[in-house]
Every structure is written in C-alpha cells, then in structure tokens.
C-alpha cells in the first residue's frame, strides 16, 4: 500500500522545527528582561518540540533532506547559542571569561551536531542504534542551565559562583563532543505489563512539573547525569555479547544471569529429591523411586525399638 502525503502534511514537521527555533531564540529575549524562569521554560519547550518533529516526520513518511538540515540549524541555535547567551547575560563579568566559556559551549554544540549528521551515513552494529555518541544537544542545552535552575529555586550558593559556572559550562561542552555512549529513548520499548505503571508515572511527573517545575527539572537533569555510567556499562556489555543484539530485554537479562553464574562457578539449583534420584541404577527408569518398606508385624517393630533404646546401630 502506497501512502500519499499531501504538501500540507509534509510541511508539518518543518513547521514544528521552526516553532522550536522560535522558542529557543525567545529564551534570549526573556533573559534580557531578566525573566530567567521563562527563559528556561522556552528552552524546555524547544527540547520537547525537537523530540516531536523527527517522530512525526517518520510517522507521516514526510522526511526530507531539507528537514534534516533545518533541524540541525534549529538545534544549534536553540540548544547552543540561546543557552550560552542566557548564561552570559546572567553572569556578565568584566574578565570576559564567561564569554569565552559561552563561546566554547556554542562551538561544541555545533561540532556535536556536525558529527551526528556524518554518523548517519556510517554503518553501525545493531546495538549502536540504542545509544547516542556523547550527550545529545537538547540534554546539553538544559544541563548547562542547571546552576541557574538551582539559583532560582534555592538562591545563591556554591553552585552560583562564577568559577563553578565556568567549569560546569566547559564540562558539559566536553560531554557533548565526547564519545561517551548515552541511552537513546527512541529505541526504548515498554512491555505491555509496564504500560499502566508508566501512565501513572507520567501523571505524577506532570503533577510535579506543575507544582514544582524547577525542582522537577533539576532532579531530571541529575538523574540523566547519573545514568551515564550505566549507559557505558551496557554499551560495552552489548559490544562483547553479539548473541544479545537482536533479542528483547528479558532475554538479555537471562543471558547476563547465565554468564554471571558461570563466572562465579555456582551450582545450578536442584530439587529436594534430585540427589536420591541420581543414585538410582542406570537400568531403571528415572521416574521409579525406591521406597524401603518394613514388615507390619509388631515383633519386628519392638525389636527395632529395642535396638534404638540401647544406642546401638543394627547391622544390615
């Protein structure tokens, strides 16, 4: 079946990309008005729109080379230029070090996007599609604003000192251009049993964002940083286990448990009667179990009891 895409539908993903670009640039205008909460919110809206345009384009079969180039330019401005300018406006200094760190961050965002576009044409193993190379641009644009988020919620502290902000900005910039694997949510598939708990979690997340938006954002960013060691471990494990590339998550867990059992040289658990069954002669079927019986007459019972009272062991 051939799907016919009208020009208006093909325009929808590009329109979402333009909206993300406008939201990112609006963050600079909010920062100039010293309304930093709206500036952070505008970059967050740009991140949400950026996650939707590609999915909608693939869903409608409306992908195009122009859309890919427009998406990269929008990401460079929304998550590179805009956060860098917001930080510089917030921490304007006479030593010009803040401007240098802002430039470094913007340049690293552009380099990260250029590398992403070149890697699209490179053949990769199947497991590599589950990861990004380095921190993606939307996550980097929000992570660099974490000191500002903490200041707006908790006031000034060690996290608001200029050297700390400079080091933080350069550190996030290095994560952007690094080759550290980070999980990609595009390939995450929720099992049927987890749909209801996930919907409950989405409801709780929405309530947290409405009631405590800055705290929810700060917690989400810290959790994202905490997941990086797990992502690196999972990437290297998949690289060393080709048999787990095309299997679902449950089977991957079974493979990991089986290999850990072999490495620790643990014995497999056996049933209570397995040891007795293993002692049976080979010429007898396995389902036959020997049962020792005693004569029912009372004399033999009394004789056995007398041996037990004397503390002796009767020879058989």
Automatic annotation (TrEMBL):
Topology class, membrane: Multi-pass membrane protein
Record EC number: 2.7.8.8
Keyword terms: Lipid biosynthesis, Lipid metabolism, Membrane, Phospholipid biosynthesis, Phospholipid metabolism, Transferase, Transmembrane, Transmembrane helix
Keyword Transmembrane helix: yes
Region named Disordered: 292-316
Subcellular localization, as worded in the UniProt entry: Endomembrane system
InterPro entries: CDP-alcohol_PTase-I (IPR050324), CDP-diaglyc--ser_O-PTrfase (IPR004533), CDP-OH_P_trans (IPR000462), CDP-OH_P_trans_C (IPR012616), CDP-OH_PTrfase_TM_dom (IPR043130), CDP_ALCOHOL_P_TRANSF_CS (IPR048254)
One of the record's GO cellular component terms: endomembrane system
Residues of the CDP-alcohol phosphatidyltransferase C-terminal domain: 195-229
Biased composition (Basic residues): 303-316
Family, as annotated: Belongs to the CDP-alcohol phosphatidyltransferase class-I family.
Protein name as catalogued: CDP-diacylglycerol--serine O-phosphatidyltransferase
Species: Amycolatopsis bartoniae
